[in-house]
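My current task is to audit a protein record that another person submitted. Alongside the sequence sits a line of tokens, each denoting a local backbone shape. Please read both lines and tell me whether the tokens look consistent with the sequence. Do not assume that whoever made the record got everything right. Thanks in advance; the entry in question is below.
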Amino acid sequence: MKKLSLICPIFLCLLILSACSQSVCLNQSEELIFSLPEWPPKNAGSNPYPKLYTWKIEINQVGKVLSFYQKEGDFCVSFYKNQPASITALPLTLLDDGEKTSYFYPAGFLYPSSYQAGKNTLTWEEGFSAQLIHKIVSSQEETGISPNRLLKFLLSFNWKKLQENINSKIEKSIEEEDKAVFNPWQINSDKLLDNICYGNFKTSLLNISGIYTYQLEYLFPNQEFSPLSAFIPENACLMQKNLINLQKEKANLIADGHKFALIFTPYSAKNLSRVNTYMPIYSERL
């Protein structure tokens, strides 16, 4: 998402929400223990996952934004108590030549809505919602909005209900044999954030429009290429369903996780461009 498309609606929305002058306490904290998803993921299907190099973990809460790399094990986070936050964990994997890549979407966790006493595990299903909070919190630097205003905005939305709706769509699509797995990363996040900001959220905003469903053998006639979806839960039944959704007039990258990738751009159901390429190399310094 381009930053400007997010900044403007959030700025206007927070000006409205800030009409109440009551301050919000940012002092009370609690330390929580989190665990990373299992790698390689379970039920990977016929195509094995690449080796994991490390995780890029990002903590997103008003007044508390940080990132770090961690190869394995649990980690501890101190959150301002009961104030919306998210964690994302991006898996950085190794290509066959030893280079690093960030092809797969991150896992996530929503605090406090997903919190349970004890140790909590990040899930792939929550990655999209966690990334939404990340975008909102990171907009503060560009807008100059006070932490108090931004926090009031985050508190005004039911993040738990959002995730429940996403989980329901994923589960239902897995059960339906004639449909591809619902991929939340194909949701129009610009439109969703705008409506969340103005208090106009509807579950219909989670519907994915402008997609075409293709059989895998149509996209990959060469059986030597074994595709892996960037959305981890889809891979458990990708080959069994033999279906995948592509977004219209957008470059859809599908890779084998190890070396090669294909970029598909559908202009209509039968007008589909295809470009052979290599998986992208992760360029940030570790």
